[in-house]
Amino acid sequence: MKTLKIAIQKSGRLNEKSVEILKNCGLSFENYKSSLISKVGNFPLEILFLRDDDIPEYVQDGIADLGIVGENIIIETNAKVSYLQKLGFGKCSLKIAIKNTCDINEIKELEGKAIATSYPVILSRYLKANNITAQIRNISGSVEIGPGLGLSDAIFDIVSTGSTLKNNGLKPFVSVMDSEAVLISTQGMELNAEVLELVKRIQSVLRAKATKYVVLNVEKKNLQRIVDLLPGVKSPTIVPLFEEEWVAVHSVIPEEDFWQKINALKAAGAQGIVVMPIEKIIA
Ligand SMILES: Nc1ncnc2c1ncn2[C@@H]1O[C@H](COP(=O)(O)OP(=O)(O)OP(=O)(O)O)[C@@H](O)[C@H]1O
Ligand SMILES: O=P(O)(O)OC[C@H]1O[C@H](OP(=O)(O)OP(=O)(O)O)[C@H](O)[C@@H]1O
Ligand SMILES: [Mg+2]
User: Fold this and answer.
1) pTM for the model
2) Domain boundaries, given as residue ranges, for the chain
3) Which GO molecular function terms does the record list (predicted)?
4) 18 Cβ inside 6 Å of ligand 1
């Protein structure tokens, strides 16, 4: 049987979460030290640790079958790959930013300006689509210092919390694209049993991450109000308690509106609420 290869970032923003998601899939491997390839002990898979810029091309050319990389790098490198799954981490936006003191308001005012970036392909495509001619200064990092040094009028880079912009006297001007880490595969590759198994495991880890397991006690007279608030995977599990008028309710709730749900449950009569993380949810 052919051993699959998956390329992940060697070090940087996506490394830790990429390793974590693979470990949560039950794969046992050594995180890279000096060797840049790690063999998984309990699955026919090898992990290649690469610079993120190289991952789309490795996958496009079939040197790696799978990869975990930011969508921004896939678009920037123009690689032809298949998207298998969004992974919910490495979320950021690519924005054009200008000096706090700059008072331009419309994108056409970028005409003739110098813009520093590490993403010249995405930027030039955006400018072209908006009929703007600007000078693109290609820089490999620390792009945000450009305007302060007089190197450029604006920058185009990754923004997440916005604190790098703020610390460099810049403000966002226009957002060009959103990005997150994605699982990709070589186009046209056979999605054999091993690939499908890996994707299934990743999806069950993601599903589990997005939900919490909740156990609470409620008086039977309030049970319907609680059940209405808790859809669960199918429907909530109700367990009798020693005190006859009370039951325990087991269910899962989505992480995204967690506190809202908890407050609503309390208001509906829930007591002794216990919340636990879920490791996997198998579809
Ligand atoms: N501040 C951020 N918040 C969230 N995601 C980010 C942030 N910065 C970068 N990313 C995402 O993580 C990816 C990797 O970022 P990183 O800064 O580690 O890249 P790099 O320095 O080019 O790494 P490499 O050494 O692998 O080339 C980016 O392409 C983007 O998708
Ligand atoms: O909006 P923020 O939360 O401040 O994040 C944005 C910054 O994060 C990234 O750099 P990183 O810190 O990864 O360093 P790098 O320049 O070495 O890539 C990116 O290039 C921005 O500079
Ligand atoms: Mg890089």
Assistant:
1) 0.91
2) 4-89+180-208, 92-179, 211-277
3) ATP phosphoribosyltransferase activity
4) no
